[in-house]
TrEMBL record:
Pfam family, one: SoPB_HTH
SUPFAM superfamilies attached to this UniProt entry: KorB DNA-binding domain-like
Residue ranges occupied by any SopB HTH domain in the UniProt entry: 110-180
Domain of life from the UniProt record: Bacteria
Protein name from the UniProt record: Chromosome partitioning protein ParB
Database matches in InterPro entries: SoPB_HTH (IPR040873)
Record Gene3D superfamilies: 1.10.10.2830
Length: 288
């Protein structure tokens, strides 16, 4: 029986035995040709002839809305998203990446763009429009018009029913009327009235007023003569809305009675009356 030492020597001898076979090398394209192909590809990428993009599939459940998004999702419905829905049905998935760049000079959503510009000038440019205009390489006057659009009062925006209907030219027309102390209250009162009209139209399934018609009504309201206010008598208090229109008067009749007289021709919405009434009721009849 061979010893353990002998077995080990036999194994070591096999490991150190000289190699008698030459390894086979697979022949392919010459190294110089492969290198030339790679260099050509890199040159095309560097010159811009070829653009490489990487797409990453992400589970929608992991996504969330950007805190500064400017879309009015309450206005999205099957009709307004028909093209997108049809694309998803035909492709079985979203065909294009979710992060996109807005088309240059797209006039469809001036108000959304205006909100973006207003936020950007305050956040990144210290409120200086000139600095932002220089960075964007646009005239300051052009940028200022969009900033004015983004500063329109909420009541005026709601008067259009759908903010996507608001255009920069509308703000250009309304700006001097809102800046004037005499016309501003009248414009704001009409805007509140139109806001109620537009809301009722949406609720009943009717079409919204045309944006040009809204602007015409607001301009017309600014030129209307101010309604004369009757002076309140002794013990009578005028209750007004934010625009200064008298909604009703309150007159004390003894310790436990108050007489309310409505101004039905007031340039105000029913919501103004309801809010003012609730406020005054809490004041004259506080809860126990």
């Amino acid at each position: 029986m061979a010893s353990t030492t002998g077995k080990n020597r036999s194994i070591l001898a096999g490991l150190v035995a000289p190699v008698t076979e030459t390894p086979t090398v697979e022949r392919g394209a010459p190294a110089t040709e492969r290198l030339s192909t790679r260099l050509t590809g890199l040159a095309r990428v560097t010159s811009g002839d070829v653009k490489e993009k990487t797409l990453k599939l992400v589970d929608p459940a992991r996504c969330r809305m950007w805190s500064r998004h400017n879309r009015r999702y309450d206005l999205l419905n099957e009709a307004s998203c028909a093209d997108l829905l049809e694309s998803l049905r035909s492709q079985g998935e979203q065909e294009f990446p979710a992060i996109v760049r807005r088309v240059e000079d797209d006039p469809a959503f001036d108000y959304e763009r205006a909100l973006d510009y207003r936020h950007a000038v305050e956040t990144f440019y210290g409120g200086v429009a000139q600095r932002m205009a220089e960075r964007l390489e646009v005239p300051k006057a052009w940028l200022s018009r969009f900033l004015d659009l983004g500063k329109l009062p909420t009541d005026v925006v709601e008067a259009f029913g759908d903010p996507r209907q608001l255009k920069e030219r509308h703000a250009r027309t309304l700006k001097p009327l809102l800046a004037d102390d005499a016309s501003r209250p009248k414009v704001m009162a009409e805007a509140k009235r139109l806001s109620g009209v537009q809301a009722a139209a949406v609720a009943s399934g009717k079409g919204l007023l045309d944006p040009a018609k809204v602007v015409t009504l607001l301009v017309k309201a600014s030129a209307a003569p101010a309604s004369a206010k009757k002076p309140a008598g002794k013990g009578v208090m005028n209750v007004t809305n934010e625009a200064g229109a008298t909604l009703f008067t309150l007159a004390r009749k003894g310790a436990k009675r108050v007489v309310l007289e409505l101004s039905l021709d007031a340039e105000a919405s029913n919501a103004d009356f309801q809010a003012a009434f609730a406020r005054e009721l809490d004041r004259v009849r506080p809860k126990a």
